[in-house]
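Listing S7. Sequence submitted for prediction.
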Amino acid sequence: MRFSERTHRDFRSMIHAPDLEILVSFVRVADVANFTKAARLLNRSQSTVSLHISRVEELYRCRVFQRSTKAVVLTPEGEILLSYARRMIQLHQAAATQLHGRTLSGALRVGIMEDFAVRQLPHILRQFAVSHPNVELELLTAVSADLMSALDDGRLDVVLARRAQRQRRGDVIWREPLSWVVARDHHPAALDGPLPLVLFAHGCFYRPLVIEALDARHIPWTIACTSTSLSGVCAAVGAGFGITVLADSTITPELKRAPPSLSLPRLPATEIAVFCGRQAPRDLAAPLVEIIRGAFSTVRDGKTSRRARA
């Protein structure tokens, strides 16, 4: 069987292996949704990162980003490629570790927000333990404000937490809406008197946001219950103490979004970011951060796939 010149050329292009360097640039731009920030994180010029993305698109013969003056968004093809790119980079790193006998060891102090710990933490720990069995992890789960305080005091090396409004620290890896939430059997169609609030204790990033939004709309409110934990807030709302604000991914089956008839103010999205302490051991922190990125990328890709099938 003879191949035509075109078929032979296509076959050679198809099996051409990508340069991992351009895939690293692609993954970093996808993670931060910004060429300038990605270049800074990679310690490269923006023109070099742009060239890398062009080479990725040339190699795979598709657009991987939709660019605009406001944002850089993955195309459907880019979302597919992202998960493969992460795996190729991780396989390369695993092979290098095995071949050169470099085994990471030591202790890494990690803080993870409470609502994330029960969902993605087991997968992250399993993957990290397999890749770096000699690294000891010290874990702390708490609300974001307490985790950030521990990071600033030098008691934690890596923190996965929700980022405060207008905060610029950290590397954002996930965004999701905030919603007003009530008990599932809540029936009032309109507000009757001050709005009873169930809130986290002082220091919670949601608390001032909620109060500012209500005051801006001149909606009277009162604090009916305060808790230091997500489970406590959910239990109080489920018991009918009042209304709260939660990220969409943390709404439990006993709760539901407040009905539009309550005319509550719209709230901004919440951002989840990774933060590294100034004295964090970089050789230990970097692999864990990449695994965390991959976990959120899997969630994002899954949501995209479900939307595509709908």
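Caption to Listing S7: primary sequence and predicted structure tokens for the chain studied. Residues 118 and 267 are 25 Å apart (CA to CA). The chain has three domains: 5-97, 104-173+271-309, 178-268.
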